[in-house]
Amino acid sequence: MIFALDAMGGDFAPGAVVHGALEALKSSPTTLKLILVGDEKAILNELPSSLPPRLSIHHTTQVVTSKDRGATVIKTKPDSSLVAGIQLVKSKQADGFISAGSTGAVMATSLLLLGRIPGVRRPAIGAYIPTEKGGKILCDVGANPDVKPYHLLQFAIMASHYFSHIEGGGNPRIGLVNIGEEPEKGSDLYQKAHILLKQELPNFIGNIEGRHLLDSDANILVCDGFVGNTLLKFAEGWIHTLSSEIKNRIGNNALYRLGALLLLPVLKNMRKQYDYEEHGGTPLLGVNGISIITHGSAGSKAIKNSIFVAKKCVDNNLIQDTKASLSEHLGANL
């Protein structure tokens, strides 16, 4: 099994990517091989010695940045680590691609080079959200701000396979993010989506209000990309604000500092549970090939775990099973 890594993508590239690759190889079977795609000199500078076995370099001369338009990088920067890495998947030289680079560029290039899974109208991005109930997938989180009910049905199906194949949760329950639990709540789009999801999916459990996103029985939370991205960014900001406030208050009070020492094991456990690096990246849903996108600030641990996510996608036949499930609902429309 071979995976191509965008060695120049992300805030801490190429160091984080190189070290993440080395860590993954240490704890993986000898059948796993990795290709670091990017500037050869920069990559070699991050290696402790010579190039180790099962790791190779595919040299490129260009780098995609946040200033580049995602839809045009395949033409403007054809020799970039991002485009060349996805080309390796297209040419069957790699089984999947992992990047911490521009989400828009990875999505656009993956679509242009790998195409869509047959029947997919809108590829989507699903985000894993850790919870006390084992985690959930929120989909879509930014790829599709304007959708139709049928798109939400496909998001639910694709996210369900992501959950069952990658997170190991069988028979996932699906909820529709809405402003109320009653079927008639929300906009015309969400009312029609409720009808369609109930009609097509036996595991659909109805609308989920914002206050119950984390404690509901739903494993899959479906919404359009505008709502999903807003929820995700709010959660990231709220966690950062809360963490900063707790640190400040503890630092300003000796009694609080003593209490914090007693709670340290609990705080460490919670930090690990909600650390996105522990989970790694997520597959682009609906793309006809394994393309994994991880956080732009990903460190070596996130890169390592993203490689393992890609491996699960291949081992558990994510693409093939998604194709089969989507084909069962191609006649559904609303």
Question: How do you describe this structure in short?
Answer:
With 334 residues, the protein is an alpha/beta fold. The protein has 13 helices and 11 strands. Helices cover 46% and strands 15% of the residues.
Describe the structure.
It is a single chain. This protein has 334 residues and is an alpha/beta fold. It is built from 13 helices and eleven strands. An eleven-stranded mixed beta sheet has the order 3-2-1-4-11-10-5-6-9-7-8, with helices on both faces. A hairpin with a 5-residue loop joins strand 10 (282-285) and strand 11. The radius of gyration is 21 Å and the shape is globular. The two termini are 41 Å apart. The relative contact order is 0.17.
What is the N-to-C order of secondary-structure elements (H for helix, E for strand)?
EHEHEHHEHEEHEHEEHHHHEEHH
Compute the CA-based radius of gyration: 21 Å
Beta-strand residue percentage: 5-15%
Strand line-up in the sheet with most strands: 3-2-1-4-11-10-5-6-9-7-8
